[in-house]
Design goal:
Layout lengths: L2 E5 L4 H10 L6 E6 L2 H7 L9 E5 L5 H7 L6 E4 L12 H19 L7 E5 L6 H4 L4 H10 L1 H15 L7 E4 L4 E2 L18 E2 H14 L6 E2 L1
Parallel strand pairs: 1-2, 1-4, 2-3, 4-5, 5-6, 6-9, 7-8
Helix pairs in contact: 1-8, 3-4, 4-7
């Protein structure tokens, strides 16, 4: 019975992951949120699901994060994000730092500890190969508009890559995202989707990566 952790369960990507993972009756889910009331307002009755355990608190609480990423967890979806281009934003960096610290804590407690596979939400804009023939002027405009968010994501990825000798991570790099029904997805390491992708399809792709155990240290769209 697989166990998954979702860091950021009240966001659009986290919510889509939660919705899809709950459809698997054998799936166990550790859902991290900063506000439990917000999550329960979004998903009434979630507390009654015995396969879902909700963790509330600060991401800087390393013992809390370690309990979320406990040895039973097979994969962790790191999907805390923002669309606000605020100077000095550190959501991705703080997520990466807390996850690394928590996993180091667990490894120190048990030398045989096997870390979960990390699936980290990123952006196609950080991977030139993913953009293909995307119009350069449009991409430059988007990059300027989201420059601080992209800096945050880039530093987070660099931090995680310093630990590739003992961690496995995949960087999911979608293009445009939209709230829509699930239409089907196809993973690619070469090119981002030409159109917008729904959060549900994004989540389905992330779950496929978790289940496959592949795409280690790769960017995937």
């Amino acid at each position: 019975m697989p166990t998954y952790a979702i860091l950021g369960a009240t966001g659009k990507t986290g919510g889509a992951l939660l919705e899809l993972l709950q459809k698997g009756p054998s799936n166990y889910i550790n859902a991290y949120v900063r506000s439990k009331p917000k999550l329960l307002a979004q998903r009434p009755g979630l507390e009654k699901n015995e396969n879902v355990k909700i963790f509330e608190g600060s991401l800087s609480d390393i013992p809390l994060v370690a309990s979320i990423l406990n040895p039973r967890v097979d994969a962790a979806f790191c999907v805390l994000a923002t669309n606000e281009n605020i100077p000095g934003v550190r959501i991705a960096q703080d997520t990466a730092s807390s996850v690394i610290a928590a996993l180091c804590h667990l490894r120190n407690e048990d030398i045989h500890f096997k870390p979960p596979k990390l699936i980290f939400l990123s952006s196609a804009s950080l991977n030139a190969a993913m953009l293909g023939e995307f119009p350069a002027m449009v991409e430059a405009t988007i990059t300027r508009a989201m420059s601080h968010v992209y800096v945050d994501l880039r530093f987070a990825e660099e931090n995680l890559r310093l630990h590739r000798s003992w961690l496995d991570a995949t960087f999911v790099q979608p293009g445009g995202l939209t709230e829509d029904v699930q239409k089907g997805h196809k993973l690619s390491v070469d090119k981002a989707s030409d159109g917008f992708v729904s959060y549900l399809d994004l989540a389905a792709g992330m779950i496929e990566i978790a289940e496959s155990g592949t795409y280690n240290w790769m960017g995937v769209s």
